[in-house]
Amino acid sequence: MKKYAEITGWGKCLPPAVMSNDDLATFLDTSDEWIRTRTGIEERRVSAVGTSKLATVAGRNALAAAGLDASELDLILVGTCTPDELIPNVASAVQRDLGSKYAAAFDLNAACSSFLYGMHYATQAIRTGVHKKVLIIGAERLTRILDWTQRESAVLFGDGAGAMVLEASDTESGLLASHVTCDADARDVLALKFGMSFDRFGFDGIMPFNFVGQEIFKRAVKGMNTAVEKVFAETGLTTADIDSLIPHQANKRLIDYLAKMCKVPEEKTVINIQKYGNTSSATLPIAFCEAVEQGIVKPGDTIVSAVFGGGLTCGAGIIKWGQRVTPIRPNDEVLESTGESALDLILPLHEQTKLAWEKRGNE
Ligand code: ACO
């Protein structure tokens, strides 16, 4: 039995349409200054295609980096809270479109923590010999579910996907320790009340997004703190052993706090929230992919990661990178532009939701 689940492939997919903070300020009562100083975000991507398409491109790039054929995979696991449909899942569309016909395929929803949750369980499955070659993807099209009249939450999120290939290995590598939790007492502070609980006959176009930013912030700090302490204790490593920090990208201030706690200097902390906003389950694999591409992650590096999301789920992991930081085949496939700008895609949603709120207010 192989003891480790080495990361052998990495890939990403960012839709081409970019929405800047100034674009948002054309239809929301907000400003570039407010968004930058409170969150660190400068722009985000808006997808014209569904989550499964984003997931497939990211997945194909990760397979290319690993030098694997899609038919060699035995599991495809997609972390998402924005599936194209309730049934069937996103993972089955990825399986079909990649041609991985021997792979089991399922989705996992732990909100923004989904990717680390996925790594946690996929690593266990590889260690026990149940699976050998696993593709994990984090993919989201959050811009379709946001309430574009609600400035508190609308400015924070974006679309994208990232992926990793994990393979059974005898070399010490991959997720060395991980800890995942859920602070369910606070499950309502970040909630989209939709899905099976909504009254489809009374649906008026509004998907209420409960979002209590400061409470999420407070609990996220506490949860990540505990999870990081646990993974250090489990491995016996200390902050002195860490080469870089690759955290969930929800707020730059939160990332700065984590970096201080883990004693990781700024140049070793991976931050890309300014370009993409919060892409939920996709932030972690996109950040890993860019950290490798930019030479921040070096062969054999030890990395600490921490995440939190709706639930409130939370987690941390210590990851050892393998000896290879260059892709075996080019992993740079991108999505073609449809010609639509980010505002072309979002303004109709904003208009519909605004009218629905006005109608509700008048009744
Ligand atoms: N533009 C301008 N003003 C705004 C905006 C906006 N987009 N949003 C809120 N404001 C106003 C508020 O109305 C408030 O005005 P008031 O003082 O007149 O009442 C003021 O700005 C301050 O609002 P706060 O909510 O106190 O702002 P805060 O500094 O807490 O920042 C934020 C809000 C960025 C959401 C922060 O709480 C946060 O980062 N929370 C945790 C991270 C998070 O929730 N990320 C989202 C995803 S969760 C996940 O990843 C699963």
Description:
Belongs to the thiolase-like superfamily. FabH family. The chain has 363 residues and is an alpha/beta fold. The chain contains eleven helices and 13 strands. It has helices at residues 21-24, 32-39, 51-66, 90-98, 114-127, 151-154, 213-235, 252-261, 273-276, 283-293, 342-362; strands at residues 4-13, 17-20, 43-46, 75-79, 104-108, 133-140, 160-169, 174-182, 190-192, 209-211, 244-245, 302-309, 313-320. A five-stranded mixed β-sheet has the order 1-7-6-4-5, with helices on both faces. Strands 8-13-12-11 form a four-stranded mixed β-sheet, with helices on both faces. A two-stranded antiparallel ribbon has the order 2-3. A hairpin with a 3-residue loop joins strand 12 (302-309) and strand 13 (313-320). The longest helix is centred in the middle third of the chain and has 23 residues, at 213-235. Bound molecules: acetyl coenzyme *A (ACO). Acetyl coenzyme *A binds at residues 30, 34, 38-39, 111-112, 151-152, 155-156, 190, 213-214, 216-217, 250-251, 278, 309-310.
Topology of this protein?
Layout lengths: L3 E10 L3 E4 H4 L7 H8 L3 E4 L4 H16 L8 E5 L10 H9 L5 E5 L5 H14 L5 E8 L10 H4 L5 E10 L4 E9 L7 E3 L16 E3 L1 H23 L8 E2 L6 H10 L11 H4 L6 H11 L8 E8 L3 E8 L21 H21 L1
Parallel strand pairs: 4-5, 4-6, 11-12
Antiparallel strand pairs: 1-7, 2-3, 6-7, 8-13, 9-10, 12-13
Helix pairs in contact: 3-4, 7-8
Bound molecules: acetyl coenzyme *A.
The site of acetyl coenzyme *A has 20 residues, from α2, α6 and α7.
Family: Belongs to the thiolase-like superfamily. FabH family.
EC number: 2.3.1.180
Organism: Pseudidiomarina piscicola
